[in-house]
Amino acid sequence: MANDTQAASGCCSTSSSNPAATSTGHDNLLGGGADDLTTCPVMVGSPVSKQAAESLGLFRDFEGQRYYFCCAGCGPAFDADPAKFAANMA
């Protein structure tokens, strides 16, 4: 089980930016208001702007719920076991 955690923890930690949180460093996309914010189900605790993530295609729909990701690496990780990651948001 430790390997699962390491794989999930490593998906975004190697990148220097969170594209759903910031763009090129000039604009902070987390300014969309409290209703726009959520957290990534793969990188639990990573803030995500729903609007920014949607514009970048960083989301998946699973069992009638939309899940937003902090980076492009989280989508494929979510796809591998969506029920596991959806449970992180419960």
UniProtKB/TrEMBL annotation:
Region (Disordered), start-end ranges: 1-28
Native organism taxonomy: Bacteria, Bacillati, Actinomycetota, Actinomycetes, Micrococcales
Composition bias, Low complexity: 13-24
Biased composition (Polar residues): 1-12
Name of protein: YHS domain-containing protein
Coiled coil residues, start to end: none
Domain of life, per lineage: Bacteria
Organism: Leucobacter alluvii
InterPro entries linked: Ferritin-like_SF, RNR-like
